[in-house]
Amino acid sequence: MENLRIAELLKSSDFGKEVQVKGWVRTKRGNKNVAFIAINDGSGIHSIQAVVDLSKIPEEALRQVTTGACISVRGTLTQSQGQGQTVELQTSALEIIGAADETFPLQKKAHTLEFLREIAHLRPRTNTFGAILRIRHHMAMAVHHFFNERGFFYLQTPVITGSDAEGAGEMFRVTTLDLKNLPYNEDRSIDYKQDFFGRETNLTVSGQLEGELAATALGQVYTFGPTFRAENSNTPRHLAEFWMIEPEMAFHDITDNMDVAEAFLKYLIRYGLEHSKDDLEFLNTRAIEEDKNKKESERSKTTLMERLNLVAENTFKRITYTEAIAVLEKGKKFEFRPEWGKDLQKEHENFLVDHFKIPVIVTDYPKGIKAFYMKQNEDGKTVRAMDVLFPYVGEIIGGSQREENYDKLQARMKEMDIPEESLSWYLDTRRYGTCPHSGFGLGFERLILFITGMSNVRDVIPFPRTPKNADF
Ligand code: 4AD
Ligand code: MG
């Protein structure tokens, strides 16, 4: 017998056909004559209803059909009598594949997201996380489609590196040295020559520098991989392990870079609206329901669907950092006063996005708050950086045009105390056939946050890694 997935069956109109489904029980209800079992196999947000005639199948056979159990059901596909679904299964045989007793933590009642984080190993069985995981998949596919259609090559950059690309020192060390018995040099510093790689190594904070090497050979590349930051910030937007997409493009200046970033984000959202329609509608309704329990002032002004369409349809606002500070100064009273030379706070980013009512791309930041590799402007004060700010999420993309001039780059590294020997390979791109080039990094979880309308990055990655938390 054909084993069809439930998402396919629900679209079928092959009434009268004998089929078999395998999946997990969401609910069971009914009376002494008939039982209704909702089965979900993860193929989509909707479950199929198996109708069991208790005069044909004894109630005893359904004893182990409880929420969470894995079952197999055979039956005839029929047009549904009930409301809400069009297709159901008239059960002829039922088998328990794996029982789940009453200790199964996901019983019918709704659970808080905080509780679900504690059972991250089981939360994919909920409607919400099923939807999020399917959307994550489609978004990953969309990333590859977008770049492939535009002639970019997918580059795999190393997870273990010896460099700190962002220069922020937020690295996880990689070592095989015995921490209880470390080898020391005469000056009491640790002798990393005895370590596995014969040098200090860490988990990558960005694939960009290696991306630049490839972009100055293949023209247009992108990376998509895990990224690690040991920043001790317990916020709803930061993970210690997250996924980043980093395109890098030769012969692109900052404006070309912004154009690619904007087209990319719009493509991803349109792709989501097309390929994850049911899941997005579910999350949209979920958010509206959740809002009803909130105070008037805390409710969203827009629905998830409205926000997705807004971003997909409208041209982003582009302003310089200096202009942004001027807008903020005329804005409102902030907890942190906006000040030229300082990083924008979340409240500032939110204000800018609210003010312009669309995503905002801020460019030309003060060089003091940005990485060494960014192209220096003529004014001597700013660099050709660009951050894309999104409603609800804040910074979703960070990028820049790169400093392609060897002398300027070398001088900036010296100013920032970045040892030249450790990055001689990077400087070589500027020594041999240098060219103007640009790139950016999109935080995958921040994208998923925006698309799903969830409010914490811990809820859009299967197994979050955050300070004091590496369970599962
Ligand atoms: O702005 P960032 O630090 O830029 C870079 O790493 C550059 N090397 C990118 C490039 O030009 N190729 O990080 C880029 C994006 C941020 O805008 C944010 O979306 C995400 O990565 N991000 C994080 N996401 C989750 N948790 C964290 N701790 C993140 N840190 C950055
Ligand atoms: Mg950034």
What would you note in describing this structure?
The chain is an alpha+beta fold and 472 residues long. The protein has two domains: 6-98, OB fold (Dihydrolipoamide Acetyltransferase, E2P) (Beta Barrel), CATH 2.40.50.140; 124-170 and 205-459, BirA Bifunctional Protein, domain 2 (2-Layer Sandwich), CATH 3.30.930.10. The protein has twelve helices and 16 strands. The chain has helices at residues 6-11, 113-118, 127-149, 208-218, 254-275, 277-292, 304-313, 321-329, 346-356, 406-415, 424-431, 444-452; strands at 18-30, 34-40, 48-53, 70-79, 87-98, 153-154, 160-161, 173-174, 201-203, 220-228, 241-250, 317-320, 360-366, 382-390, 394-401, 437-443. The strands form three sheets. Strands 6-10-11-16-15-14-13-12 form an eight-stranded mixed β-sheet, with helices on both faces. Strands 1-2-3-5-4 form a five-stranded mixed beta barrel. The protein has a three-stranded antiparallel β-sheet with strand order 7-9-8, with no helix packed on it. β4 and β5 form a beta hairpin. The longest helix has 23 residues, at 127-149. The model has no long low-confidence stretch (mean pLDDT 95). 4-amino-1,4-dioxobutan-2-aminium adenosine-5'-monophosphate (4AD) binds at residues 165-166, 206, 208, 229, 231, 238-239, 242, 244, 246, 395-400, 439-441, 443, 445-446, 457. Magnesium ion (MG) is lined by residues 387, 395, 398.
Task: Provide a concise account of the structure shown.
The protein has 472 residues and is α+β, with helices and mostly antiparallel strands. Helices cover 30% and strands 24% of the residues.
